[in-house]
Amino acid sequence: MSEWMNALSLTKPVIQAPMAGGLVTPSLASAVSNEGALGSLASGYVSPISLEQQIIEMQQKTNRSFQVNLFVPEERETPEAGVFEKWKASIPMADEAQPFSILEEDWKDFEEKVELLIRFRVKACSFTFGLPPEETVQKLKDSGCFLFGTATTAEEAAALEKRGMDAVVLQGIEAGGHRGSFLPAKGEPALGLMALIPQAADALNVPVIAAGGIFDHRGVQAARCLGADGVQIGTPFLLCEESSASPAYKQAIAEAEGADTRLTSLFSGKQARGIVNQFMKTYEAEEENTLPYPLHNTLTKPMRRHALQSEDADYMSLWAGQSAGMLKGLTDVKTVLSELCRS
Ligand SMILES: Cc1cc2nc3c(=O)[nH]c(=O)nc-3n(C[C@H](O)[C@H](O)[C@H](O)COP(=O)(O)O)c2cc1C
Known about the structure:
Shape: globular
Strand order of the largest sheet: 1-9-8-6-5-4-3-2
Distance between the termini: 15 Å
Radius of gyration: 19 Å
Order of helices and strands: HEHEHEHHEHEHEEHEHEHHEEHHH
Helix content: 25-40%
Structural class: alpha/beta
Number of domains: 1
Organism: Bacillus nakamurai
InterPro entries: Aldolase_TIM, NMO
Largest sheet: 8 strands, parallel
Strand content: 5-15%
Mean pLDDT: 97
CATH class: Alpha Beta
Keywords: Detoxification, Flavoprotein, FMN, Monooxygenase, Nucleotide-binding, Oxidoreductase
Number of strands: 11
Bound molecules: flavin mononucleotide
Cofactor: FMN
CATH superfamily: Aldolase class I
Number of helices: 14
């Protein structure tokens, strides 16, 4: 058994991906942890008070390890003059959008969440969108928390190892949801797992976890063959009865064909992979002109909220990885994990 699994008392080399946006509840994450894999709570877009409630619920539902995922706050870019007004007039319901958070508030939110993890002795924490500050790393390590960073290139993986991460999640271009890229690249920070895993595994001394497009035991074995010490799985868990993805979202994944997903910035201003829907088609020509994250994300929020309430998959962000075409219907955590770990 790998050391990272030992450290977290896991019996399966699988992490259920943290999936922000109300998709992961303690019901899903605790079911994963109770099966011997690592369940994850997503703290993105969740207030510290709600996160505290989720951690309490999680600790009531499992006594095994779980992790909490944190977004590292990012420097804000200022949009060009007139672009904000243009999008506000164009995106459905954008005039209802608020609040527009500022960077200082994001850091306060981040630090409050770190304190919660320490107070509740959460066993593991993962970061995405950047390098956590050194003091945060030190504080969490002092509390015994195991740390994962997210990288999309070997350079980012090396920077995360240097910052003190105990393991690095390698996010391939196949992955559903937002790209965790945070360092500039000479070419495209858009590597497939086949290229990324060996590059990072050879460069790092800490374990690497492969994420993106994996849905069955063949993907797990391929990732391990390339040098991964474990896998992080998102999209397949969305179809579980324990997930709180809406029926329309689950249906869109179940009906998706192999090439129905693509990267888009249209929902948030940051590249993310999702199933192509009407909103993405309508604004396709504007793909390069979105507002910076998180401004664009805030502007599309009322539209996405309304789409969720009315089960309208054409205006939701249907984040999904390239495995979507292979996922055919409702399932449950136990079945997903036994398929992944079948030999
Ligand atoms: C709906 C959805 C939401 C996601 N939200 C997060 C998140 O909050 N934090 C994070 O680190 N990764 C997030 N991810 C990315 C996952 O950690 C992981 O890289 C991805 O799910 C792996 O690809 P797969 O979905 O093909 O398995 C999200 C992915 C999806 C599909």
